[in-house]
Specification:
alpha/beta, seven-stranded parallel β-sheet, 14 helices, 13 strands
Length: about 425
């Protein structure tokens, strides 16, 4: 089976990383998968870069300009919304023509337009679309938070100035997506059960197939290792518990750094002796700008890197991983941490409770509760059996997220999509 995975990038962002890992998983399980991207950042020969790059830069700029005007020329939310009004036509490419299955992933910010997606659907090839966030099931946003408009019709969008209007940008794009999906069959796959449930409530998805399959991870790369050796390479203290936080952009409010700092400060105030026993390790863009005084802990900040061996070494150095995100689908960072045998702490939101089994391989804190987050850090690092937590984390990854497990689930979806195509012929 020849599968073409379509993604804006093959490395930038969690969705791109997950898509690239799926390609590897499929190839390692006997399928022929390739990847088509606008922004190629790896040297993988299985990844094809879109031709005529100048056209795609213009598509990106034109879409941003459209959104910028609807935002009354304010930058807030400029990169949090997408309208897909410009993008590539991939149906004429050789890799598209040779594919048996077209598998869309995160295709925003000028990669594919709604018109381009329509051409893909009308080509007659079976289409699978993995949802790495809510955008396919909403009008313009990737994160719905507490908004329920997508269950009926998107309008009066809270992300637009003054809460949008009856016929705002969201309303216009909603109508286009509704027309796009109607009378066309797409096999939607959410990365988490949580997103699957949410997507099924979308008025856009009436009559569409929606299921869930997690992202895969290569456990040959992400695996436990020598903790002291990892710390020596990073010049980290050997005699302290190390709490790790990872985000591509630490300053992204949705990643919850403010809650982590507040939780650490509360922990130090309640048990002052822990201040000398705990060290905070931050991997991410803008990490050097974080004020150590806000957490009350000594802190090491490491700039974000795409070097897998360096990332694995950072996980191995940690005693626990914390991700107090306010919105998450199925974060790669939790999966990576668990694959390295590191227990995790996170809020009860999105797909996080599907990954962290409370008091078994980590701690699930009450949503937006810095107090419970602090308790989770204390319990995981100073009370729980660390070897048992590590064992359970590794078992969870092996049973649910290994390349073979995830690849076989997707192959089943592909076969079903191909069978439905044959029935229509």
């Amino acid at each position: 089976m020849r599968i073409l995975i379509v993604s804006t990038s093959d490395a930038t962002g969690g969705a791109a990383v997950a898509a690239h890992r799926l390609m590897e998983a499929l190839n390692n399980n006997g399928e022929k998968a390739r990847m088509l991207v606008r922004d190629k950042q790896t040297d993988d020969i299985s990844v094809v870069k879109l031709p005529q790059q100048w056209r795609h830069k213009w598509s990106f700029l034109w879409e941003r300009l459209t959104i910028f005007s609807w935002l009354h020329f304010r930058r807030h939310n400029l990169f949090g919304l997408d309208v897909a009004n410009s993008g590539a036509d991939i149906t004429q490419l050789d890799c598209f023509r040779k594919a048996d299955i077209i598998h869309l992933h995160w295709v925003n910010q000028g990669m594919l337009s709604l018109r381009g997606i329509r051409k893909i659907l009308d080509s007659g090839k079976p289409v699978v679309w993995t949802m790495h966030d809510a955008w396919p099931s909403t009008a313009i946003c990737h994160v719905t938070m507490d908004c329920k408009n997508f269950q009926t019709i998107c309008k009066n969008c809270k992300y637009l100035p003054d809460g949008g209007s009856e016929h705002d940008l969201a309303w216009h794009i909603w109508r286009k997506k509704l027309s796009l999906y109607q009378h066309r069959s797409i096999a939607f796959v959410a990365c988490s059960k949580w997103l699957e449930r949410d997507a099924k409530r979308s008025a856009l998805f009436q009559g569409q197939s929606v299921t869930h399959i997690p992202n895969p991870i290569d456990t040959r790369i992400f695996s436990p290792g020598d903790k002291n050796q990892a710390r020596q390479l990073l010049n980290l203290p050997l005699d302290k518990k190390i709490l790790l936080f990872v985000a591509q952009r630490v300053s992204n409010e949705l990643k919850g750094m403010a809650y982590l700092q507040k939780a650490c400060k509360q922990l130090c105030e309640q048990q002052p002796e822990l201040k000398d026993q705990l060290h905070l390790l931050i991997l991410g863009g803008d990490s050097s700008e974080m004020n150590a005084d806000e957490s009350g802990l000594t802190c090491t900040a490491v700039p974000y890197t795409y070097d897998q061996s360096a990332i694995v070494n950072i996980y191995r150095a940690a005693d626990a991983f914390v991700l107090p995100s306010l919105s998450e689908n199925l974060p790669n960072t939790i999966m990576e941490s668990m694959a390295c045998g590191v227990p995790c702490i996170g809020f009860k939101v999105g797909g996080i409770p599907e990954m962290i089994d409370h008091l078994k391989n980590g701690y699930v804190a009450r949503y937006r509760s810095a107090k419970d987050l602090a308790e989770g850090i204390r319990w995981t690092l100073f009370e729980a059996d660390s070897s048992q937590l590590s064992h359970e984390a590794l078992r969870k990854v092996k049973q649910n997220y290994s390349q073979q497990v995830v690849a076989m689930e997707y192959i089943e979806v592909y076969n079903e999509a191909l069978a439905q195509k044959q029935l229509k012929l």
